[in-house]
Amino acid sequence: MRKVFILFTLYSLLFSFPALAQSERKDSVVSAVTEVADTTSDNIGAAIAQQADSALDAEKPLKKLKIKQKRDWSTWKPDPKRALWLALVLPGAGQIYNRKYWKLPIIYGGFIGCAYAMRWNNQMYLDYSQAYLDIMDDDPNTASYTQFLHLGNQINSSNIERYKEVFRSRRDRYRRWRDLSFFVMLGVYALSVIDAYVDASLSTFDISDDLSLHVQPAIINNKMTVSPNSPLSNNAIGIRSSLNF
Question: Fewer CB within 10 A of the terminal residue: the chain, N end or C end?
Fold first, then answer.
């Protein structure tokens, strides 16, 4: 009887193991599917949220662009300091910033004229310097001064001293004019800077109809003659003028 009971117990255990293994396998499959579903839903939700955030970020610059208003040039006033620095860095930039374009031909015309004068006077200075050196060295092979002689004129012992003085004076004259052209160019540059700053500063100056000069009679206190017995002698009748701006 004991042997029969033991055999029955062994057969029961053998038949129960596959059932337990199959149930555990089903539970593991179900849990795996559940985890995959949860992970997929989380990824989809994160992707949707990211797309929504990117769409909102893309709409923000568009809103800012729509809110930004166009500058009204009729009420715009230039900044004097900015106009000064622009004119210092680039001649004429201050006038462009002040919207005074008609001044540009005057400024650049002055620079071009001074540059041409410097170049021409420098060339004439070099030519007369060489001519003066050639006439002073008494070498017949160096006679560049002949290009400055009038047709038919020649240099001889009777007039050589006069031509020496002529070439020397003209050399000094063209050198002086060349240096003067350079300083005039600096003056044009300084005027362009001053004009840009003053023009920007005067853009806020009141030129309305309220500017007026009022002249009216007034009693002026004369502090030079103080008399306690006669208060009328301390005052004088005059004219007062006032400027409203």
Answer: N
Rounded to 5 degrees, what are φ and ψ at 75? -110, 5
Residue spans of beta strands (DSSP E) within 4-125: none
Contact 201, 209 (CB under 8 A): no
Q: What does pTM read for this prediction?
A: 0.56
Q: How many CB atoms lie within 10 A of CB 113?
A: 14
Tell me the pLDDT tens digit for each residue of 40-73: 555 555 655 666 566 555 555 544 545 556 666 5
By CB atoms closer than 10 A (0-12, 13-18, 19+), residue 126 is: middle
Contact (Cβ atoms closer than 8 angstroms) between residue 242 and residue 214:
yes
Reduced to 3 states, what is the DSSP secondary structure of residue 56?
A: helix
Residue 118 and residue 125: Cα distance in Å, rounded?
A: 10
Residue found under tokens 């100056």: 205
Question: Residue 224 corresponds to which tokens in the numbers above?
Answer: 């030079």
Do 112 and 118 contact (CB within 8 A), yes or no?
no
